[in-house]
Amino acid sequence: MLIGVMKPLFHPSADDITIESILHALSDPARVQIFAGIARSECAQTCAAFLELSDRKVPKSTLSQLFRTLREAGLIRSERRGVKMYNTPRCEEIDKRFPGLLTAIMNALAVQTDSERPLDELGR
Questions:
Q1: Please, what sign has the CA dihedral across residues 27, 109, 57, 77?
Q2: CATH code: domain of residue 59
Q3: Which of 12, 49, 107, 114 has its CA at a distance of 20 to 30 angstroms from the CA of residue 40?
Q4: In the chain, which residues have pLDDT < 70?
């Protein structure tokens, strides 16, 4: 038995990403908040950057499941570097497959949450 070997992370190919998986992943307010934070960021975000969402602490085990759902839906790409996991958005890949989908979703979120600035471009 090998000790300390991590299982590889699953990332669907761009062709395997579905609208249903995207909408499911973004149906949870915590996952939307995480994805929006990653999509708006200029650089990769660690999971630890989201230990607090909307002024409430999120257990690491819950956070792990939230990121897994986003990753398996094809919304983010995660990369292990040592003990940290770095996450980047896959907006360009998704935009090629479903033009304008993420921009429309994130702009609707901005209107819903009365955010100061809607997003014209994501993850670019």
A1: positive
A2: 1.10.10.10
A3: 12
A4: 1-6, 115-124
